[in-house]
Amino acid sequence: MFIKVLLVFLISIFPLAYGEDLTTIKPERVGMSSERLAKIKPHMQRYVDEGKVAGIQTIIARNGKIVHFEQVGTLNLDTGAEMKNDSLFRIASMTKPVATTAAMILFEEGKLLLDDPVEKYLPAFKDKKVLVDGELVDATHPFTIRELMSHTGGLTYGIFGNSPIDQQYREAMFGENNTFNFRSIANNDTPDSQLKTLDDLVATIGPIPLQYQPGTQWVYSLSVDILGAVIEKVSGQPLDTFMEERLFQPLGMKDTFFEVPEDKLNRFGTLHTIDQTGKLMVVDRPGSSDFANNVSFLSAGGGLVSTASDYIRYTQMMLNGGELNGVRILSPTTIDLMTRNQLTYEQQLKYDPRPGIAGTTGFGLGFGLKTEAPKTASGSKGNFRWAGIFGTDFWCDPKENLTAILLMQMIPYPQNVRAEFKNLTYQAIIEMN
């Protein structure tokens, strides 16, 4: 009798936990080759052997099933701890799509509209001026929520350029007028931000003029951090609480957060760069990391820590049209909206002007996307993706029902590794959709 009751209990809980979950299967069952996928690990191992990175982790899923999940190298350069399936990574700007998805939950509930002016929620951005040829002129229109999500609102980042507006951003945020460079990180002499909360960010850059007229250019920017402030105002909750309750818990993302809990620090690795002698060196450690100690600035643009297993739950949900394991986060119509190109053709040419790529790449709401099939690499029209400054990257291919993630902790990261991982993934497909 006890065994019968136990079996009934197990049957009742296992479908919830595993029945439709991202289980691992033989690649051939979903049209991929085990032999070809086996090329990935030794290729990544070479980067470790050559001292270019400490470690790399890769994961691929097709048709909602994991066909590849491997890692090479070291998680913690100080202790020698190896990477494992549950290792935690600073995912940097891979936070942006997740935060944009959180905002679209509020959109679906009618609590905000994409054409709402940002100033409706954040009055610090009222009556914006634009710096044009050294002169301040009125903005043609208040920049909108949609323009925040697509980086076309007139804002900038402050650290990647040296325009007069970039300089004002840096001075306001850091109290110094210095340009961002990787060597300053290697030397541990980057200035500390004076901003402690999203409200501080809004108050700091709100008075600064826009760099360009809203809607006229794509410029990578602090837009999604400002979107995080909008989410807080509209939801009435701190950003981390809203995302935990409305995204992470429903999707079973138990290892995604803005602050690494103390009991999980052993799974959180070191961040690395190359020193002046060409050797790997540590620039951020788990115990002293800004990602692990009383985090108050909840950066919607780059503040999350996550695992491959967690993040692929998010990407698979997006690939599924807003649902995972019977839990619906968004409607398929909203996913379709998020993956529509928001740029004009002229803006696309400037967004990514590289030969063979110019004109085929656009930007949706939170994602870069392919408006045409790539000319210089495998992939499909409709691919959407984003990446992070520490070498993290992901993409979703709706046509091939495939999603893949690359994780490392390196700044600057080897430039070719992302494209090589993508090639290694697509060459393993032996049955196209």
Summarize the structure.
By secondary structure, the protein is of the alpha+beta class. The chain has 14 helices and 15 strands. It has two domains: 17-89 and 265-275 and 305-339 and 382-426, DD-peptidase/beta-lactamase superfamily (Beta-lactamase); 102-241, 3-Layer(aba) Sandwich (Beta-lactamase), CATH 3.40.710.
Radius of gyration in whole Å, from Cα? 22 Å
Percentage of residues in strands: 5-15%
Percent range of helical residues: 25-40%
Largest sheet: 7 strands, antiparallel
Q: Encode the helix/strand succession as letters.
A: HHHEEEHEEHHHHHHEEEHEEHHEEEEEH
What is the CATH top level name of the largest domain?
Answer: Alpha Beta
Give the helix/strand class.
Answer: alpha+beta
Number of folding domains?
2
Task: Pick out its properties.
433 residues, alpha+beta, Beta-lactamase, 2 domains, 7-stranded antiparallel sheet, two-stranded antiparallel ribbon, 14 helices, disordered N terminus
